[in-house]
């Protein structure tokens, strides 16, 4: 039996992988692949699992999704966009929900079902719209800004809807105003309680966790906080997702926000995939085929009505035709949170399975159409408005100023070196962003207004989130070789063309780091030597341009004259040494040319030859070696010994 379940799980995952790969090639969202997987593996397909079996695990996906949504919730950003968010967003939600709910009641649905249906249809897909607007570089255009405002309010509106859903599930009796008011009051009290907990206790917990420098402990603590707050709100009779949202919001203003999001994302994506698979199991193709004309009719009605409502509202507030229509087309689909509401409604027996199946089918098809509609929204708006050549003053073409997190210098590590670099960049008005793993340092720097975030620079998801692909330069300032190599590998994989400067203590890993993709490696000890040399030469009267030219030559040649030194009592056998070999009259190398000696096979470099007090640096290949010449060799100690034996004895 257990073996059979394992085979079924493996088969389901294989189907999901194949479906995602195929649909991504077609430009369709991965959500559709998960839904298709659910249809194939559910009751309508092979019947490997039922929706009830997937429900508990799938609910965790919603919990983590709400947690990450809370992390993205920014009070300053919300306040800056308050007019469009609370004005346009709330009006769109209320009008769309009222129209959809009213039509639902006209066709025979009760009040509770009408509220659920109206709320589900009023929501749009945040994931799809933001992804496509970003791909088209439209987020800073006017219609992109309006779309983001509406989506932000819709995401916020999910919170009271999550509070409302359990209250509507009262055994089929009529809704009581007192019960709803009590539920909302309970939700407010829970919110205030968790806010107090989050303000005084959560930061201290994560400060201690961060000081441990244990990635496993950080991930585990994040999961526990999300699930414990969810369990607390569920204990109060509310939704688990509500508690997770509040926990995310509490941590969203902390320095740990980006690290938390990077750590939680793999779990969220996996569990959300299972959630959408469970939604797909609700799809009964026989039922969909039975009501196929209703599905098409509702689909056309939903998309057109949402477009018309949003277009009308934007025209009322003075937006021009192109902006209003392109915004409306972008928001015409049904969103992923609609699946959450519909699934909860079925679980609470607020909605018939047949109605839910039809609405899920409508949502799936509308989301399938969304990529094409969004990509062509501006073109459609231009054709409808009859203005094919937009003027230079057209607001839809205006690009807002770059945000703090695009086209910046990314400093990884904020110790003394990182802070020094940041101070000089600030003086020259060069924008920068910093990532550091010391919680105290991050807290102090954030308090001083620095653009710094807590996080592990070796995390691929975190570097991707902070926008390494848009960075103009990446500077790795920490000196631990393994950490630098790991960070460099991840950064180069995410951003193949970005310039990356890496700081090291010495030249031990210089070539390895260059081969790993570093644009330039700056060994601290060698650069210190160069700075001292420049001062010495300057004090000796050497012209400054000549000094600068010589220093740049050393850097271009990978510090050629700074490799290899005479060994002392404490010799580091991992570094190149400089060794002088004096050739007596009977030495094997006497009489040979420099080219006759197999330097490459000996794994050493002939740095210079000293003859009668003069140094030839470097000697030409046809230089004939004579007795009493002193050969200056550079190489590892064992190679030096081998070369000396060859030069003296052959």
TrEMBL record:
The chain crosses the membrane at residues 6-23, 30-50, 56-73, 85-105, 111-134, 146-168, 180-202, 214-232, 268-285, 291-311, 323-349, 355-374. It is a multi-pass membrane protein. It is found in: Membrane. Residues 406-523 form the RCK N-terminal domain. Residues 565-649 form the RCK C-terminal domain. One of its GO terms (molecular function) is antiporter activity. This is Potassium transporter.
